[in-house]
Amino acid sequence: MSENNTKEKLYKKEIRITVIFTLLLLMMAHCASLFVLFPGLQSPVSAAGVVGGFMGFPIQYIVPILFGWFGLAAVCYVMAVVCNKFDDEMEQLATDTKSRRQRETA
Amino acid sequence: MKYALDNVWIGLGMVVILFACFYYVGWWASRKTTSEEDFYAAGFSIGPVTNGLGMAATWASLATFMGVIALIQKLQVPFVYLWIQWSISIPLLTLLYGTSLRRMKAFTPASFIKARYGNGAAICIVVWMCLVMVMYALGQMIGLGQAFELLFGVPYNTALIVAGLATVGFITMGGMYGASYNAAFQMVVMTLAMVAPMGAIMKQMGASGWWFPPLLYGDMVPNMLAAIPTFFDMKYDFRWYFALIPAFTLGPVALPHLAMRVFTSSSVKSARWAVVWFVLFLGLLFCGTYVAGFAGNYFRATTGNIIEKADQTILVLNVFYNPTIVAAFVMGGALAAGLSTISGNLMAIAGLVGNDLLGIMAPNMDRKKKMRWGYMALGLGGVAAILLAFKPPAFLVTSILWAFGLLASTASPGILLGVWWKEANKLALIVSSTICGIVYIIISPHVLKTIVIGKGLPAALGMSGGMVTVPLSFGLFILLSMLFNRMDALKAYAPTLADKQIIDRIHGWGEEYEESRYQSTLWPLVAVAFCAAILIWGLQPWS
């Protein structure tokens, strides 16, 4: 694969990674909005209690809390792995380019 | 005072011990601080776990420890949703620009603005950021005054002066090294102080899951619903929840004291791992506040007791249910929460003035002299916050949250588009940031009460205002950039090759410059259309 192709591929990958993780982060933090947009997802709540909840809470309360903590942590973990691997690829490209230039100069 | 500590000496002992620890760390850190890199960025040396704790402590302020519980009492569950979304601030910041700016070894986001857009734009952004930092520190000072008030049973104003001056002292001493290590220690203190005593309270309230209070209080829900049937209602329409994004998600992304935590990392990779730790630590503390908010409502509804100052709920619950020593420790946790954030706020002011502003106004000034100015700015910022706190708003969170919308309207577009779009124009940033900042202030209920977008709490917190000025700022910045770059008379403000090379470099391309990268025309126009739709939606009457 030519060097230009590699650069183009890496550039597109950077944009893709950024867009995907931005959406995932927003989803984890703002999932409460889904329960407003689709009220059918909510557990019915009345003075008599909660119907069909989770851990004793209405779904619309506990799911955003769990997503905002553990869901977000999972996304951040994957983000660290993927972005750090991407950095390695960028560094590899920079090293290859530098050595090629040195060879050409020599 | 109904809920002051029984024994003032226990409270005093707790405060003395904590402040002794903070001053020791400050003194130890002052010996390590020999350069600007040390003072503003802790020598770019903080590891992921310490930094994760530091990030969480800087973000989790007294607003988290006290203010959020008060607003959960007022808004109930919708305010929990509002708070949850703040966990993404540092992950989003790190993803979108934190690591890029760490690569260029920036001290503050304004350092990047200066390099990318030049001096004029940097002065504009520094002024907005300093204003926001003072507003932010103000909220913390109010909380500190209230905590001291309860601890010692002294009047609020006396409490404020003592707490404020003691705080500014140790921060000035230690610089960013001190702020970082103190913040990590403070996060441990505040988490323990929030979560462990809540277990004892939940046990007395009858929760079987008292041994892990952050998540296991589901068996109290039937009693809560019997007392307050509307507690879990999602009271507002979809726009209310959507309005959290422009003001409260995009605002904190540009907070200089949060970005500075990312910059102190020992490497770009370490910064990303710190974010994982940040989410885990912060999640534990945040869930602690949700249960405290739940317990506050439960306490009022089931015991009939009245809490006069809602911000003091967590402290009152502990005075009511726990032994004095535990209540004193919780108040110590509140202090830790306030101190860690004030440290970040004041360090940001020091960096913005001492490094960014003086770098522009007196570029040849000696580094040591610049650092001295930084110390002075730090002290003055603290005193300004103390003075403003003498007449506090009803809820301490109000001033902080309102400031987020201001930052989203003025600084976020410049930073985000500056990193991701080569066409971003210097003059366009100054114009859009100034106009939208002023419009945001005008349409809030705090200045001109006759010109307000929205009403009630959404207007007071800046949610309805942000829904108008944040999309306006992004849209205006993009359109003006495109226009100004094509006008011969304004050629001087168009991005130069050197400006564009910065963008490639901070994304990790090194010296490999490629003109076509980060240069789209279509996507910015799509963003403008999206912003216009949100702006129109925000202008519709608020119920």
C-alpha end-to-end distance of chain B: 38 Å
How many DSSP-defined strands of chain A?
2
Percent in strands of chain B: under 5%
* Overall form of chain A: rod-shaped
Largest sheet of chain B: none
Report strand % of chain A: under 5%
List the helices and strands of chain B in order: HHHHHHHHHHHHHHHHHHHHHHHH
The H/E string of chain A reads: HHEEH
* Number of DSSP strand runs of chain B: 0
Largest interface: A-B, 53 and 56 residues
Rg from Cα of chain A: 23 Å
Strand arrangement across the biggest beta sheet of chain A: 1-2
Oligomer: heterodimer
Low-confidence segments of chain B, given as residue ranges, are none
Specify the number of helices of chain A. Answer: 3
Characterise the protein shown here.
- The complex is a heterodimer of chains A (106) and B (543).
- Chain A is mainly alpha-helical and 106 residues long.
- Chain A has helices spanning 3-29, 32-37, 59-105; strands at residues 45-46, 49-50.
- A two-stranded antiparallel sheet of chain A has the order 1-2.
- In chain A, helix 1 packs antiparallel against helix 3 (59-105).
- Chain A is rod-shaped, with a radius of gyration of 23 Å.
- The two termini of chain A are 24 Å apart.
- Chain B has 543 residues and is mainly alpha-helical.
- Helices cover 74% and strands 0% of the residues of chain B.
- Chain B is built from 24 helices and no strands.
- Chain B is globular.
- At the A-B interface, helix 1, helix 2, strand 1, strand 2 and helix 3 of A face helix 5, helix 6, helix 10, helix 11 and helix 12 of B.
Provide a quick synopsis of the model:
The complex is a heterodimer of chains A (106) and B (543). Chain A is mainly α and 106 residues long. Chain A contains 3 helices and 2 strands; from the N terminus they run ααββα.
